[in-house]
C-alpha cells in the first residue's frame, strides 16, 4: 500500500510541474507588453511600473517562472488587479457555492446515470436498453447552457415553481437555497449522468457474463441479489475510476451553469475575471482546478486499490 | 484460359475498411447522423442562397416578433431574422468543429507517434506533458487560452484545438505501442526501412481507424465548446451570427421571446447529436467487439 502510494505520488510531481509551466506560459500568450495587459483597463504608469516590478518582468523568463512558482508553493496565487484581493481568498470565498452545486450534481448523476446503466445492461437489447441509450445520447449532446435556458423557461417562467436565477446561502434559508440550486444541479449533472450510464452499462455487461455471476444464479439466488450485490459491486470499481476522469468536464460545466443561473461560484469567478482582464485570477482558477482534479484522481486510484484485492497482491 | 479464370474467380475479397463501411451502412443511427451532418454541411455551404433574409439586417419595426409566415423562426431583439442567423451560424459551428479537430490531429498525431515509436525519455517527457494538459479540464483550459489569446472565432478554434490535443496524443501513442510489436513492423525493419518510413508507411495507416472514431466524437465536443465560448463572449464576435452568441443574447429574453433560444439551441443539439451518432457507429463498425 505504502509503495503504491509513493509510486503514484512520484508521477504527480512532474505532472504538477508541467501544469505550472503550462499555466505560467499562458501569460506569455498575451499580446504586447505583459505589464500593460496585466494592468487591464488601468493605464496609470505607476500601476504598470508596479506590476513590472512585482512580476519581475525585466528579468529572464526562467527567473520569472521561479518567482511565480515559489509564490504558488507558498500559497500565493497572485492578486486580483480588479478587486485588489489575493486570488486565494477569492477562490476560497467562491468555492463553497461551487462545491455545493457540484455535489448535488454528482448525486443526481449517480442516481440517474448508474440506475439507467444497470437497467440497460440487465435488460440488454430491449426497449429499456434503447431508452437508456437515448437518454445517454441526449445527455452527451445537449449543451448545458441551453438546457438551463429551457428549464428556466418551463419551471420559472411558465410554471413559476422555481426561481429563474440567483443564489441564497443555505445558512440563511435552506429551502430557498435548495430551490435555487436544484435546476442548476440538474443541468450540471445531466452530462455527467450520461457518462456514468455508459460506463456502468459496459462494466455491468462485462460482469454479468462472468463465471461467478453464473454461479450465483445457479445457486438459485434471487436475480435482484445477483445484480445488485454480486454484479454491481464489481462493476462499480471501473465506474469510480472513469467517473473521476470525467469529473473535469463537470468542473468545466460549472462555468456555463453558473453563468446561466447567475450563481456566484467558482465558474462565475473565472468568467468575470476573463472579462475584467484579471489574468492572475484566471491563472489561479486553472491551477486550482487542475490540482483538485489531480487530487481526486489520486483518491479514485486509492479507492480502486482499496476495493480491489487483486491490486494489493 | 483467361476466360476460364474470370468465370471461376471467387468474388473479390473485401478490404477491412470496406467491411467496416458495410457494417456502418447497416447501422440506422449512424446513417441518420451522417444524413444530418450532410444536411448541415449543405446548409453552411449554400447559406447565402438558403437564408430567406440578410442575417445582419436589423428592422426596428420587427423587434422580437413571434414566428410567422414571414419570419419562420421569429426575430431577435433588434429585428434580425432568427432563421437566417441560425442558417449562417451553421458555418461558425462546423468550421470550429472541423478546424479545431484538424489542429488537434496535426499536433497530436505526430507527437503521439513519436512518443509511442521512440519510447524512452521522449515518451516519458511527452506523457508527463500530456498528463499535465489533461489535468486542466478541457473547457476551463479552452476558456483560459481564449482569454489570453483574445476573443475571436479563430482564437477560439486554436484554444479548442490545443485543449483537445492531449487526447489524440494519448490515443495515437497507445495504438502505436500496440502496433509496433507486430510481425509486419519487424519485417519492415528487417529489410532495412528507415525509422521515418516505418512510422509513416507501416505504423500510421494501421492506427488510423481509432483516430477517425475519436476525431468524429471530438468534432461533437468541439462544436459544443465553440458554442460555449461564443455563449461566454469568447468566440464569434457580434454581429456575426453564431449559435452560442445567439443563446447568450436570448437568455435575456426568456420570458418574452422564447423562440430566440429554442432554435439555436436545437441546432447545436442536433449537430452534436449527429456527430455523436456517427462516431458511435464508426466505433462499432471498426471494432465489432465493442458493443
Overall description:
The complex is a heterodimer of chains A (313) and B (291). By secondary structure, chain A is mainly α. Chain A has 13 helices and no strands. The longest helix of chain A has 38 residues. Chain B contains 13 helices and no strands. In chain B, helix 2 packs across helix 13, helix 6 packs across helix 8 and helix 11 packs antiparallel against helix 13. The interface between A and B is large, with 52 and 47 residues.
Please render the helix and strand layout as text:
The complex is a heterodimer of chains A (313) and B (291).
Chain A (H helix, E strand, L loop, with lengths): L1 H28 L4 H5 L6 H10 L6 H13 L13 H36 L4 H15 L2 H15 L15 H35 L2 H8 L4 H38 L5 H10 L3 H29 L1 H4 L1
Helix pairs in contact in A: 1-12, 5-6, 5-8, 5-10, 5-12, 6-8, 7-8, 7-10, 8-10, 9-10, 10-11, 10-12, 11-12
Chain B lengths: L1 H7 L7 H10 L2 H18 L1 H4 L31 H37 L1 H16 L2 H12 L3 H27 L3 H8 L4 H9 L4 H25 L10 H8 L8 H28 L5
In short:
The complex is a heterodimer of chains A (313) and B (291). Chain A has 313 residues and is mostly helical.
Q: Main attributes?
A:
heterodimer, A: 313 residues, mainly alpha, globular, B: 291 residues, elongated, disordered N terminus
Q: Flag low-confidence runs of chain B.
A: 1-7
Structural class of chain B: mainly alpha
Helix content of chain A: over 70%
Molecular shape of chain B: elongated
Beta-strand portion of chain A reads under 5%
Amino acid at each position: 500500500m505504502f509503495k503504491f502510494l509513493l509510486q503514484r505520488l512520484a508521477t504527480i510531481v512532474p505532472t504538477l510541474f508541467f501544469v505550472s509551466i503550462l499555466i505560467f506560459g499562458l501569460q506569455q500568450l498575451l499580446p504586447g507588453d505583459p505589464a500593460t495587459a496585466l494592468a487591464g483597463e488601468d493605464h496609470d504608469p505607476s500601476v504598470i511600473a508596479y506590476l513590472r516590478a512585482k512580476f519581475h518582468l525585466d528579468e529572464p523568463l526562467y527567473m520569472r517562472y521561479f518567482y511565480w512558482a515559489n509564490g504558488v508553493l507558498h500559497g500565493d496565487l497572485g492578486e486580483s488587479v480588479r478587486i485588489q484581493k489575493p486570488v486565494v481568498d477569492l477562490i476560497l470565498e467562491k468555492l463553497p457555492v461551487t462545491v455545493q452545486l457540484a455535489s448535488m450534481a454528482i448525486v443526481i448523476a449517480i442516481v440517474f446515470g448508474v440506475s439507467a446503466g444497470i437497467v440497460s445492461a440487465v435488460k440488454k437489447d430491449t426497449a429499456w436498453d434503447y431508452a437508456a441509450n437515448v437518454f445517454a445520447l441526449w445527455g452527451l449532446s445537449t449543451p448545458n447552457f441551453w438546457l438551463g435556458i429551457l428549464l428556466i423557461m418551463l419551471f420559472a417562467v411558465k410554471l413559476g415553481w422555481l426561481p429563474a436565477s440567483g443564489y441564497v446561502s443555505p445558512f440563511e434559508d435552506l429551502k430557498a437555497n435548495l430551490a435555487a440550486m436544484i435546476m442548476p444541479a440538474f443541468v450540471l449533472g445531466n452530462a455527467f449522468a450520461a457518462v456514468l450510464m455508459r460506463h456502468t452499462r459496459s462494466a455491468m455487461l462485462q460482469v454479468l457474463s462472468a463465471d461467478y455471476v453464473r454461479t450465483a444464479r445457479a445457486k438459485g439466488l434471487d436475480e435482484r441479489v445477483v445484480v445488485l450485490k454480486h454484479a454491481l459491486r464489481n462493476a462499480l470499481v471501473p465506474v469510480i475510476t472513469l467517473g473521476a476522469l470525467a469529473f473535469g468536464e463537470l468542473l468545466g460545466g460549472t462555468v456555463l451553469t453558473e453563468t446561466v443561473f447567475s450563481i456566484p461560484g467558482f465558474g462565475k469567478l473565472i468568467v468575470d475575471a476573463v472579462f475584467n482582464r484579471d489574468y492572475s485570477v484566471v491563472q489561479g482558477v486553472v491551477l486550482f482546478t487542475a490540482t483538485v482534479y489531480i487530487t481526486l484522481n489520486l483518491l479514485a486510484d486509492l479507492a480502486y486499490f482499496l476495493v480491489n484485492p487483486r491490486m494489493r497482491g | 484460359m483467361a476466360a476460364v479464370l474470370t468465370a471461376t474467380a471467387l468474388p473479390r475479397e473485401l478490404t477491412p475498411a470496406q467491411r467496416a463501411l458495410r457494417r456502418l451502412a447497416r447501422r440506422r443511427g449512424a446513417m441518420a447522423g451522417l444524413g444530418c451532418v450532410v444536411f448541415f454541411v449543405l446548409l453552411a455551404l449554400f447559406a447565402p442562397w438558403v437564408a430567406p433574409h440578410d442575417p445582419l439586417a436589423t428592422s426596428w419595426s420587427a423587434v422580437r416578433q413571434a414566428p410567422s409566415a414571414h419570419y419562420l423562426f421569429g426575430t431577435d431583439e433588434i429585428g434580425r431574422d432568427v432563421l437566417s442567423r441560425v442558417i449562417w451560424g451553421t458555418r461558425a459551428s462546423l468550421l470550429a468543429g472541423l478546424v479545431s479537430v484538424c489542429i488537434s490531429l496535426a499536433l497530436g498525431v505526430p507527437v503521439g507517434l513519436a512518443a509511442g515509436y521512440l519510447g524512452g525519455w521522449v515518451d516519458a517527457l511527452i506523457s508527463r506533458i500530456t498528463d499535465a494538459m489533461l489535468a486542466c479540464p478541457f473547457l476551463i483550459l479552452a476558456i483560459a487560452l481564449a482569454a489570453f489569446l483574445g476573443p475571436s472565432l479563430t482564437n477560439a478554434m486554436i484554444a479548442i484545438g490545443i485543449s483537445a490535443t492531449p487526447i489524440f496524443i494519448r490515443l495515437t501513442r497507445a495504438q502505436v505501442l500496440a502496433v509496433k510489436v507486430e510481425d509486419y513492423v519487424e519485417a519492415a525493419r528487417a529489410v532495412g526501412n528507415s525509422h521515418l518510413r516505418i512510422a509513416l508507411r507501416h505504423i500510421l495507416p494501421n492506427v488510423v481507424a481509432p483516430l477517425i472514431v475519436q476525431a468524429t466524437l471530438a468534432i461533437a465536443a468541439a462544436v459544443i465548446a465553440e458554442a460555449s465560448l461564443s455563449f461566454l463572449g469568447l468566440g464569434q464576435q457580434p454581429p456575426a451570427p453564431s449559435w452560442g452568441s445567439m443563446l447568450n443574447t436570448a437568455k435575456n429574453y426568456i420570458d418574452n421571446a422564447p423562440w430566440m433560444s429554442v432554435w439555436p439551441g436545437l441546432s447545436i443539439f442536433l449537430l452534436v447529436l449527429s456527430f455523436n451518432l456517427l462516431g458511435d457507429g464508426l466505433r462499432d463498425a471498426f471494432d465489432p467487439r465493442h458493443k
